[in-house]
Design brief:
CATH class of the largest domain: Alpha Beta
Strand content: 15-25%
Largest sheet: 8 strands, mixed
Number of helices: 13
Oligomer: single chain
CATH architecture of the largest domain: 2-Layer Sandwich
Radius of gyration: 27 Å
Distance between the termini: 32 Å
CATH superfamily of the largest domain: Bira Bifunctional Protein, Domain 2
Order of helices and strands: HEEEEEHHEEEEHEEHHHEHHHEEEHHEH
RNA sequence: GCUCCAGUAGCUCAGUUGGUUAGAGCGGCGGACUGUUAAUCCGUAGGUCCUAGGUUCAAGUCCUAGCUGGAGCGCCA
């Protein structure tokens, strides 16, 4: 039985009257006659019609929810109204039984929280099938986008010896026996005894290595897992997530913003064009979910509407200084409805970003030129500006409705003396960054780049409320099952 | 890490000011059904009320601590 046809292909170009073999998982079995079969190749099911009298003894009761079966028969125009074609089966084989008395999933709506505890079965549901197909689509579109633009895919290391990446708490990597740690004479842990002869961690960002690539290959991007040991408990954070970090020589902050906007739109457009069926499933799911919410909690737009809206409009671009001014003139500010103060020099809080994106502009917003004091050491120092009470750096954040910051990036500081001074100011040991500094000393160039949180983008495109539901096996504080 | 909310049948939930034998829908099981679409109809089984203490004549219900989940915030992508 090698000539299996995928259901996607059966439905795309049905050859009526021809013999077909399909294999998949039972989604429903109605009236001892109609099997809704899904094989993961498409969100749509194929209706398999069986004649109960002609099936071998005992098969009927094994055609259970999520049992795996093979069905051989003839494609025919459907007599029912729910589908165009159906498979009139003359053979049905059970490939994998699924005892409904023990199987945890049921043919009904179940909560995301419950399905999270069944990560080995949840891809079989309509919602997660659609989410994971789209996750694949976005990953593919990322590579296609950068390849078509002449970027090279650079593999940054997963294990890093640098702990100066400055993006948060790190997971330590060690092979030392934790019960018998080697000590130096002064009593500290002797990392020289460890596998790499030094202290190592899982990476929090591939950016610094991407800069090495950009200063040789011109335009590169990384796309790999990153790890943050932050105790973040929100629907937008994971301890293990994937990040895309393009880095381009000769780009300034404005080139960087143009690329970021074009990139976001490309990914959304790609999914709209090639995964409309899966988006329809998710759009319907979201509508259903929103129905149960009070009117003021509902999203202003449906999923498809929102995706088109992002693709069809230019992102709003403002400076941090303008953002502060806007916020100070806003209604919630004047009515004292913001929890956190708004003043130049303080970082924008989630409530402020939400106001700008969801109320003021109602579309994605790119904020640039943040105060130097609240941003990373490697961001390029701007020339003084009369409107700005302090130093700013050429940083940019792309803010999306619902999920907040989806991209963070900057033009990098390429001036050796300015960078060195900054490193000393913030107190990072210079020897940790010797190679990063040498990039400025020998053949340096102006360059810029950004990081896109892969799961946040997938979250936005699929409309899923919790980031844990757009990655197959989420890693979060107190959870590393599966 | 902080704040708030929740934990009752396989799932989703109800359970009144503390009071007799803790309920429903879905799902399961048994049966009916040859055009169903979350099929429908009849019948039926199913509970350590998260854990440990405490208050009380009496705790699913009140108190304390813990565990787990969720939301908001912080950190960020």
């Amino acid at each position: 039985m090698k000539s299996r046809t995928e259901i996607k292909d059966v439905l795309k170009a049905p050859a009526l009257g021809s013999a077909v073999l399909v294999k998949g998982w039972v989604r429903a079995f109605r009236n001892n006659r109609f099997i809704a079969l899904n094989d993961g190749s498409t969100p749509h099911n194929l209706q398999v019609v069986v004649d109960a009298d002609k099936l071998p003894e005992g098969i009927l009761r094994k055609i259970n929810f999520h049992a795996c079966i093979a069905a051989k028969g003839t494609l025919a125009e459907s007599l029912g109204s729910g589908q165009a074609v159906e498979l009139v089966a003359d053979e049905v084989h059970i490939l994998g039984e699924c005892n409904p008395e023990e199987y945890p999933l049921q043919p009904k709506r179940q909560t995301m929280e419950f399905l999270r505890t069944k990560a080995h079965f949840r891809p079989r549901t309509n919602t997660f099938g659609a989410v994971f197909r789209i996750r694949h689509a976005v990953a593919y579109a990322i590579h296609k986008y950068y390849n078509d633009l002449g970027f090279y895919y650079l593999h940054s290391p997963i294990i890093t010896g640098s702990d100066a990446e400055g993006a948060g708490e790190m997971f330590r990597v060690t092979t030392l026996d934790l019960n018998h740690l080697p000590r130096t004479e002064s009593g500290e842990i002797d990392w020289k005894e460890d596998f790499f002869g030094r202290s190592t961690n899982l990476t929090v960002s591939g950016q610094l290595q991407a800069e090495i690539g950009a200063l040789a290959l011109g335009k590169v991007y990384t796309f790999g897992p990153t790890f943050r040991a932050e105790n973040s408990n929100t629907p937008r954070h994971l301890a293990e997530f994937w990040m895309i970090e393009p880095e381009m020589a000769f780009y300034d902050i404005y080139d960087n913003m143009d690329l970021a906007e074009d990139f976001c739109k490309y990914l959304i457009r790609y999914v709209l064009e090639y995964y409309a069926d899966d988006l329809a499933v998710l759009d319907a799911r979201l509508r259903e979910e929103e129905k149960n919410l009070p009117a003021d909690k509902r999203r202003p737009m449906g999923l498809l509407e929102q995706l088109h809206f992002v693709v069809d409009n230019n992102f709003e671009r403002i400076t941090y200084t303008e953002a502060i001014r806007l916020l100070q003139n806003s209604k919630p500010y004047k009515k004292g409805q913001f929890e956190f103060p708004v003043e130049w020099g303080r970082d924008l809080q989630a409530e402020h970003e939400r106001y700008l994106v969801e109320k003021e502009f109602k579309k994605p917003v790119i904020v640039r030129n943040y105060p130097q004091a609240i941003k990373a050491f490697y961001m390029r120092l701007n020339d003084p500006h009369p409107d700005e009470p302090g130093c700013t750096v050429a940083a940019m954040d792309v803010l999306f409705p619902g999920i907040g910051e989806v991209i963070g990036g900057s033009q990098r500081e390429e001036r050796h003396d300015v960078l060195l001074q900054r490193i000393r100011e913030v107190g990072i040991p210079e020897e940790e960054l010797w190679w990063y500094l040498e990039l400025r000393k020998f053949g340096g160039a102006p360059h810029a780049g950004f990081g896109l949180g892969f799961e946040r983008m997938v979250q936005f495109i699929t409309g899923m409320g919790n980031i844990r539901d757009v990655i197959p096996f989420p890693r979060t504080p107190k959870n590393a099952e599966f």
